[in-house]
Amino acid sequence: MKKIMIIDGGPRKNMNTAAMIEAFANGAKSVSEEIEAKTVRLYDIDYKGCRSCMACKLKGKPSNICVFKDDLKPVLEEIAYADGLVLASPIYMGETTGELHSFMERWTFPWLSYKDYSNNCPKHMPVVAIYTMNASPEQMDFVEKGVGMSEWIIQNTMKDFTRICACNTYQVKNYDRYEFAPNQAEVKQAWKDAHWEEDLQKAFDAGKQMAEKILA
Ligand SMILES: Cc1cc2nc3c(=O)[nH]c(=O)nc-3n(C[C@H](O)[C@H](O)[C@H](O)COP(=O)(O)O)c2cc1C
């Protein structure tokens, strides 16, 4: 079996990010029964970002996997030797969610040796980032520039990095309940009708591509 780990950095279980993840997983699994796509929901587990305990940099026994004991530790150990990774998040304040960012600190900081600044990532694997956001394609140059330093580290480490974005998402199930601009429901519905299936297809295709790459 080949394992794709999917890290869901969004809080909502049934909305846009979750739907993109499901499409990706279905695409990956459509290729072969040899593909396992396992989703971990960060909002369901108890952890914090890096505490700067420096245990990963101890003299004589450095570790390239975070050693801090909490609910994230077994997930990080599983990811370290997975065959592919998906990082999914709604965009909050122009960035990934805080939960995904905290995960990134725990995942990537142990790779870096302070002795010689080498990068000791345990295993290189294809990584796909899935972002969903309110911004339109014209407004999302902040994403094109790279969502923060952590994405830059992954791109440079893994080399095989793809980003998929679903823009202008349908943010709430019932626009009448909330204080949006008067025509928001219609505008969002029109965008959804024109683009959402295409976005899901992009996620499905990316899942297929990752699975094919892993099995090749
Ligand atoms: C706290 C918060 C901050 C947000 N910040 C942004 C933002 O900076 N840019 C943006 O395009 N959308 C922003 N959004 C919208 C979400 O990214 C968008 O609705 C996303 O698709 C929600 O994902 P979900 O349906 O999986 O929860 C924000 C939403 C929330 C709740």
Describe the protein's architecture and organization.
It is a single chain. With about 220 residues, this protein is of the alpha/beta class. It has one domain (about 1-215): Rossmann fold (3-Layer(aba) Sandwich), CATH 3.40.50.360. Helix content is about 40%, strand content about 15%. The protein contains six helices and five strands. It has helices at about 15-30, 70-80, 100-110, 140-145, 150-160, 185-215, and strands spanning about 1-10, 35-40, 85-90, 125-130, 160-165. A five-stranded parallel β-sheet has the order 2-1-3-4-5, sandwiched between helices. Strand 3 (about 85-90), helix 3 (about 100-110) and strand 4 form a beta-alpha-beta unit. Helix 1 runs parallel beside helix 6. The radius of gyration is 18 Å and the shape is globular. The mean pLDDT is about 95. Bound molecules: flavin mononucleotide. Flavin mononucleotide (FMN) binds next to helix 1.
- The percent of residues in helical segments reads 25-40%
CATH topology category name: Rossmann fold
Query: Into which percentage range does the β-strand content fall?
Result: 15-25%
Strand line-up across the major sheet: 2-1-3-4-5
The total number of structural domains is 1
Total beta-strand segments: 5
Gyration radius, in Å? 18 Å
Number of helical runs? 6
Q: Give start-end ranges of low-pLDDT stretches.
A: none
Determine the mean pLDDT: 95
Largest sheet: 5 strands, parallel
End-to-end Cα distance: 13 Å
Characterize the overall form. globular
CATH class: Alpha Beta
